[in-house]
Amino acid sequence: MTARRFVDGYLGYLLGQANHAVYKDFDREVRAAGLSSIEWRVLATLHDSVPLAVSQLALEVLSKQPTVTKLVQRMSEQGWLRLAVDPGDQRRTLVAITAAGQAMVKPLIDKAKQHEAQALRALSATETVALKKLLGKLA
Questions:
Q1: CA 10 from chain center: how many Å?
Q2: Which helix (H) or strand (E) holds 75?
Q3: DSSP element (H, E) containing 137
Q4: pTM for the full predicted model
Q5: Over the range 6-35, which residues count as b (16 or more CB within 10 Å of their CB) and which as e?
Q6: Whose CA is closest to 40, among 29, 50, 49, 51?
Q7: Between the N and C ends of the chain, which has fewer C-beta atoms within 10 Å?
Q8: CA 112/CA 28 separation, integer angstroms
Q9: For residue 4, what pLDDT is reported?
Q10: How far apart are CA 35 and CA 92, in angstroms?
Q11: Integer Rg of the chain from CA
Q12: Is residue 25 predicted with pLDDT exceeding 90?
């Protein structure tokens, strides 16, 4: 009888493995579109969102605020994002996607949905809903 390894049942490891399995092929699509993975996450997060503060955006794209601050400035210069001072708090910058950013990310959103469906094909619809609900609880 083979002993079960710790990592085979460790949640962090399993989540990392699942993330890698789901994202590795799609990352090629992102790179082929001329985006880095973090640029993709920013555009995907903002594509159907109200403007977000840089601090909130950093949390949602899983990156540090200074990194996101520099990134959104660059993406703004490329015309993909619009930056504005938060009228409720002059110290905060709000970030919104532009029409050019939408045009850049829309084909990738469609491909991401197709890729997700392919990755989840082994699960039933009920299992898929349950998985997403449980992952949402953990997050």
A1: 23
A2: helix 65-77
A3: helix 125-138
A4: 0.89
A5: eeeeeeeeeeeeeeeeeeeebeebbeeeeb
A6: 29
A7: N
A8: 11
A9: 86
A10: 26
A11: 18
A12: no
